[in-house]
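Tokens for ABC transporter oligopeptide permease. Go.
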Amino acid sequence: MSATNSLPLSLKPSPRLWLPGSQHIGLTLAFLYLTILILAAIAPHFLTHGNPYGIAPREAFTAPCWQHPLGTDQSGRDMWTRLIFGARSSLVIGIGSILLALCVALSLAIPGAFGGPFAEQCVKWVFEILFSFPTVVLALLLTALFSSGTFPLIVAVGIGAAPGYGRMLFGQFLTIRHAGFIEAARSLGHSPAQILTRHLIPNAFRPLLIAGAMGIGQTIIWASSLSFLGLGAPPPAAEWGTMLAMGRDYIAEAWWITFFPGVAIVLTMLATTTLGRFLKNRFETTTS
């Protein structure tokens, strides 16, 4: 008999709660990075005292040094300052796009799952049409219809991401609409609105939270891609995708102008994905 099997049941390690040390370190680093990112978005002056739009032509293309830890851009603007102030725009775009995508997804999934056979079929057709376009292509088409800027970018990326969340919610609602607790609520005389607000949306909250947390980084990447193509916030906006686009012509002689905004985007993607996986494991543990 192994040492583990000889332990009392209450002392045996739980395979769901146990995490390797590397995962603990990754989760800690993700929370630390997100904390700094939120602080940068809410109160950037705690992390820098510079002006993200203040130019200094004599200091243009300064490599990373003690005075400018991340160097300066082609106009002499401090990259650290611009990166910190850009966190707000990037987070607003990412979170705003996710909230819009979830609202659109709910507005399609709820009528499709509970509006009868005809509504269900219509929603399926809508999803099939939207899924015929890749998300980035759909967002690109929508951005082309509006003027460039932060708000049109949020709308384009949010609508482009909505079909994926909508299909997930639609499938979940179809699964639980005939569940025992739903039938019990109907037999007790609860109205459709009460069933929706008391049972359906609370049951969908956890997967929505997980998908939303994991999707923030992805929407930031999509928004940065559109900004890189010139369809986002116009220069010299302190937004990570715009900063990438502004530095692409100088990447050979001033690599830091594009490198550090790219690193920030990748780290945000990794941190939000780590957070989403942590929430998923946490919810699975509490429900088991």
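The chain has one domain: 23-284.
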